[in-house]
Design brief:
Number of helices: 13
Number of strands: 14
Distance between the termini: 10 Å
Largest sheet: 8 strands, mixed
Length: about 400
């Protein structure tokens, strides 16, 4: 068994341009990264640019590309972009496809709210009534219905353009333990035509007029419908570590260890810990702030600041890598904060691949599926061929030998 390690880091929602079918999703013209750069008058992300981000088709406007960093720990990196083959544009679909599972049918959404009959059954099961039941911004609906929730104890239920059933409750009215059990019940009930991708616990605190959501969010996802590269690696004796909400996204399937995080900063600290401690196998991390704090809240300045903070941290990550390590930077969808609305956007995502034994400057082109990541990792680790995706391992290494010493 090889001793190589793959670090798959998902910059949640960092899209780089509308997919050809974006109009079907109401996302024509979206480009998360490019529009942030234009609105801000530029981005100071020299390390990402030095790894190839500025060369990816449509990712950044030429006039807003800063000079590449001159002291990147190693320049052996490849760049490209990936299209989403699956139907949809949500977190679960994007992450599953990165790991090798492509969906031919999008998860159901409920823009008009959930059926009243289901809500009645749900309320009876959990012993609490419900409020809301519509598509809404979480911060907006908590501000609007928070007082009534505190007064009555009824749960705030809402959804979005994504396939989610979200339950918000004040931590002093509904304990975290009870809220998590309520969401487990909802997860059990939401099957078949109601089978949303995620049930999300959304606890909040504060007083009237000043409610604030806490970091105690928890996602309850459906189980992957196919075998991911994470599951196959785990079954073949490799270590698989999930950082951030990765374990929730994959319903724990294929995840050997989970290190939850509540922010980009904490997630980056855990990635560095994994660089020090992880053994052979896969580390998959999600950095959630780009999406949760900035994309969904149309906060262009905050998104730009988070990107620049990540870029400044990159040299620390790269300097700690071993000879056989490979880092893959990508995203799961877009969430263009300059577009109308607050929902995800159907976009290409970046692909930056770096490692000390990889070919320098290889253009990986425009990939047909996020699943190319999973297929590449599977080939490099000798896991066999996955049902979806095309490996770019030979292109990245110049080798087509599964027993190569690169990993």
């Amino acid at each position: 068994m090889r001793e190589g390690r793959f670090f798959i880091i998902v910059l949640d929602s960092l899209g780089i341009g509308a997919l050809p079918d974006a109009a079907l999703y109401g996302d024509e013209g979206s480009n998360t990264l490019k529009h942030i750069a234009i609105r801000q008058g530029g981005l100071h992300i020299p390390h990402l640019v030095g790894l190839g981000l500025g060369h990816i088709q449509g990712a950044l406007p030429i006039s807003h590309i800063p000079a590449p960093a001159s002291h990147i720990p190693f320049p052996a990196s490849q760049f490209g972009r990936m299209a989403e083959k699956s139907a949809g544009k949500d977190t679960i679909t994007g992450h599953w496809e990165i790991a090798g599972v492509v969906l031919d049918k999008a998860f159901p959404t409920f823009p008009q709210g959930f059926p009243e009959a289901f809500l009645a059954d749900f309320a009876a099961r959990v012993g609490r009534g419900v409020l809301g039941n519509r598509a809404a911004s979480g911060t907006e609906i908590v501000a609007r219905l928070g007082d009534e929730h505190v007064r009555t104890g009824r749960l705030i239920v809402y959804t979005s353009a994504d396939s989610v059933f979200q339950v918000a409750a004040h931590e002093e009215v509904v304990s975290l333990k009870e809220l998590m059990e309520i969401c487990r019940v909802a997860r059990e009930m939401l099957t078949g035509d109601l089978g949303v991708a995620r049930v999300i616990a959304r606890p909040f605190v504060g007083d009237r007029g000043a409610y604030v959501r806490t970091e105690n969010r928890r996602d309850f996802a459906v189980t992957p419908v196919g075998e991911t590269v994470l599951e196959r690696a785990s079954n073949q004796g490799y270590d698989v570590l999930g950082i951030g909400k990765i374990c929730d996204i994959f319903a724990g399937k294929g995840i050997g260890k989970s290190w939850p995080s509540h922010s980009n900063r904490e997630g980056m600290e855990l990635i560095l810990r994994a660089v020090r401690e992880a053994k052979r196998g896969i580390v998959m991390a999600n950095l959630v702030d780009f999406d949760m704090l900035y994309g969904h809240r149309n906060d262009v300045e905050g998104y730009a600041r988070a990107l620049e903070e990540f870029d400044a941290w990159l040299p620390v990550l790269l300097a700690g890598l071993r000879e056989q390590d490979v880092v893959m930077l990508t995203a799961d969808h877009g969430c263009d904060p300059t577009m109308p609305g607050t929902d995800h956007s159907r976009e290409y995502v970046p692909l930056l691949v770096c490692g000390k034994k990889l070919r320098a400057g290889a253009d990986l082109g425009s990939r047909a599926s996020f699943a190319d990541v999973g297929q590449t990792v599977a080939e490099a680790l000798g896991l066999g061929v996955l049902p979806w995706g095309e490996s770019f391992w030979e292109q990245a290494t110049g080798l087509h030998n599964k027993a190569s010493d690169c990993c």
